[in-house]
Amino acid sequence: MSGKLIVGNWKMNGSLAANQDLVRAVMAGLSDKSCKVAVCAPAVYLPQLQQLAAGSHLLWGAQDVSAHEQGAYTGELSATMLREFGVRYAIVGHSERRQYHGETDAVVATKAQRALAAGITPIVCVGETLAEREAGHTEEVVKRQLAAVIHTNGHCISEIVVAYEPVWAIGTGKTASPEQAQQVHALLRAQLKAATAHPERIALLYGGSMNTANAASLLSQNDIDGGLIGGASLKSADFLSIVAAASH
Ligand code: PEP
Fold this sequence. Notes:
This protein has helices at residues 16-29, 46-53, 79-83, 95-100, 105-117, 130-134, 138-153, 178-195, 215-219, 236-246, and strands spanning 5-9, 36-40, 58-62, 89-92, 121-126, 161-164, 204-207, 226-229. The protein contains 10 helices and 8 strands. The chain has a single domain (5-247), classed as Alpha-Beta Barrel (TIM Barrel), CATH 3.20.20. The structure holds phosphoenolpyruvate (PEP).
């Protein structure tokens, strides 16, 4: 893929006032030379993002999407609804949703399908827990998670973004070393190459305590096309410094 992609995941943080300051500061720091940049906000703030960022260099996304198209699913938000608010990306299968909301590989795959059908790019998260890594199961776990999405989405697979997020590195301050991350990215890339004629379209992001200090070395790896950034996306200076590291 050409150019890197940096995506902020605000998780359940923010307020109307704080978002306004953050978004304005981020937009002010972006230039034509910046790589592709997006923030995934809590859904209630998507209209605010649309209002603040429409026409700017900053794109926005959701942190989840329903696996259902419409109907009696209280509390759910469909991909079509999200699209009405200019949403370009939807994170699916974040480890916090797999862990706290029981999302299975099959549900994640269907969510990706719903997003694609509405013209939203799903950012499909895969990653192993510490126990799985220590047991030597990293490869098996991430391949299984990605295989479910490939299986359900067939020829549309070249339209997704994949984020490798080792669960043990999320919000913990522990980062995968550039070599550890590259190793997993290379095998995900190989899996995608076998699944589509256009693997070059798919951005492979790393996520897990990426910050101003480690971004450049992670982003310089051959198969790391960008980052999914949690904590550091809540501070404009940190987020912009990661964007700068991805922009040359
Ligand atoms: C995330 O939640 O996707 C993430 C990578 O979080 P953090 O950067 O805080 O580890």
